[in-house]
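Note to self: the last two entries modelled the partners one at a time, which told us nothing about the interface. This time every component goes in together.
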Amino acid sequence: MRGMRNFSLVLGTLFVSILFVIMLVSLFYTPHPPNEMNVRERLQAPSARHLLGTDNFGRDVFSRVMVGAQTAFQVGAVSVAIGLAGGFLIGTLAGYAGRWVDELLMRATDALLAFPGILLALLLVSVTKPSLFQTMLAIGILSIPSFARVIRAGVLQQKEADYVKAARGLGAGYANLIFVQIMPNIASAIVTTAALNFSTAILIEAALSYLGLGVQPPDPSWGRMLNEAQSYLAKSPWFALAPGVLITLSVLGFNLLGDGIRDLRDNSI
Amino acid sequence: MRPSDPLVELRNIAKTYAGPVSRFRRKTLRVVDNLSLSVRQGETLGLVGESGCGKSTTGQIAARLLAPSGGRLFYRGEDITDAGEGARGRALRRQMQYVFQDPYTSLNPSFTIGRLLGEPLAINRLAGRKERQARVAEMLETIGLDSSYARRYPRELSGGQRQRIGIARALILNPEFVVLDEPVSALDVSVQAQILNLLKKLQREFALTYLFISHDLNVIYYMSDRVAVMYLGKIVETADVDALYRRPLHPYTQALMSFVPSDDLRVKREKIILQGDLPNPLAIPAGCPFQTRCAHVHERCRAEAPVLKEAGPGHSVSCHLYA
Amino acid sequence: MRMTAEAATGTETPLLDIRDLRVQLRRGGDRSPLSVLDGVTLTVNRGETVGIVGESGCGKSVLSLSILGLLPGGMRIGGGEIWYDGRHPLHRMSGREIRSFRGKEIAMIFQDPMSSLNPGLSIGDQVTETLRLHLGQSRREAKEHAVRLLRKVGLPRPESLLEAYPHQLSGGMRQRVMIAIAVSCNPGLLIADEPTTALDVTIQAQILDLMRTIREEDGTSILLITHDFSVIADMCDRVLVMYAGQILESGTVDDLFERPLHPYTAGLLRSIPTPEKKNRPLYSIEGRVPALHERGAGCRFAARCPHAVERCRTENPELVAYRDNHAARCFLAETEGVHRHAAV
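The predicted structure of the combined assembly is written out below.
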């Protein structure tokens, strides 16, 4: 059980699983309807009825936080998917074709990388009406460079390997070489990058929503909740605590997971 | 193919690479230079030379893993230099195979042994899954491994076992011609013996023709019928193995042969210790490539490159001493 | 030089005296450590060249590294002693104490000169470094000395070589530089770990020739580690055969080649493809070397030995010396007609 000694992996999996379960459950059940306002019960402290209290509109914080997990996972998954797709295309092309194709593609990705993430997201999002979709697209585009680099590095490293030459000698075509021969050997690097990008995605979404540019009200998002809670910090701190802790937990969880997977791979070599 | 044609023939093969640019001129790296050799059906031709002489490159060209920069390649009398990846090319893949030197890097670490061995059949669409499994099991038995090995991964196998897999992979397509590139160099002495025995057995069983590349003179002697000696991209001597080892003609071959131990390893032979080093491969001097280390060098050697000429029955040498 | 060595073994203190050395590999968690070297005893006398021959995994490199305290992390000396010149207990020296030995009294050369030379430093820098460190020479003195050293090891145009970098040199030349650095402070003992394995046979001959010259001129003792029997035959006075962390046989070169006592030694010699074996299948030892965790209680070679009996599988034999310091770790060697089973 090599994994057991790998604390990052264990903790990371634990955190992510907890959040995942919360998210799943929230699809079917929340203690209260997350958007139901009840002004008479606003800003209440945690109680038996409202496990994490209520917000400034009397909405149940616990329920909102649960549904916020949906947003977080959705943003993470979709943006990672976009990043992976784009990065894969660029990375394999650059790595395998080499020379000027490589130069061109990599300089373009470098340009993208040079943009501060949040600014780029702001730019994209402010050009059109802010919405969840815009957010996911923006973050997805932002994560293309990291995938492209990792995949390109992997392809470059493996393409000169003897086993690739052997497959070529057996008559394998480019598609086979990249997908069948090389891919399994760079898969864990890709998974690690995916996990780390997942956490970045959650963080950026939270930031955008905090600034009011991401998820729009009344849909719950942890970042948005932080924004709403800001004014009431002195009187009702639990309101801000819940989403804040969850953002931290999820970012930490995915980072640990990514680290853990990387350690697993490094040790098994 | 006429009965007298060799199975595989390389004629005037050259392989050059673009080197670094120096003083506005791009130097070329001539790894193989005007090289001709032929392998007769059923024989083992040993290709011996030291590191950097181009023997691996020659082997890869002979097995069509690498395209030559010049010269022609013949198989069964037919010019296949431009066969490419078309139908003819794919058919040739099944006839001409290559075994890599390093058993550690030539097997895809993410594949099981079963998948690795079935790969050649899968890529060439020669057999469905069930048939592949059967062939794989059969091949494992032929190379002396239990069929349970099909489920294992390369990292679980020792160097010797991996090399067996490399050999098996080359043979699963039933080729006629196999290039073996230093197949035992990375292995311990006791494992080496096992693999050499296996190679000989397989050659008899499947009527194979080998191009056996090595720098180890003992192994070459043991395996080969005829031997070609390479130096800096050129063939300097070719002969039947006994003729080469007992009456080497080229000064380089003579030096090499002085290192072949007699049966009693302790008997000290008169070793010819060459002075000097190999010239920079980017700047091979005009004339004979061996001039920098030859004890018999004279003016003509620096001016004119010698060509491979017959000096006796079946014995050719490229040296002005015999011109 | 061989005569001197044999004459000297009588009463002189050995230069290097390793007694019952044990090296272990730590494993994570609560798993017990694995034994890499299991009670290795050997001596090198002044002026002698001792060879250690064995296949991969036998521990010969670990043995050479442990002498100078160069064991990789995770491996440590678990028992036994290493004495240098009868006075210096290398096995329990501190880092600082051992450092004063490295390169000065005991020098080491490795298999791959490309990775043991610093690719970022010039040849001159690397050769003079040792001279200035151990002999306290000034920059100019060290430079002159370096040129002399490079010339001594047969390198052409040594002055211009000082400015060159390792990647500009061929493998043979780099190994000569390594030897120059190693002998720069006139060490008493030179440990050579597979010094010619990565080199072509013609270059190998040059390097071994160089080592012989140094041995004759400076009286350096050599501990030569290799898997190549012809190198052993060429260079060594005495030989030890290692297998799976233990010494299976030791004796003079003649003893081993003519009258091997251990079936493993005999088997190895038989499997070398020398010319007269051409048209017959080669003798090969069955099976393979056991991994570290596969070493059982009995003789470690028993699983592969054609002469193994029941006792061999349960008991690990001791290394017993027979006539003239020819020792073997084998129960069958104890019986009468000692050579019958090990006939080559």
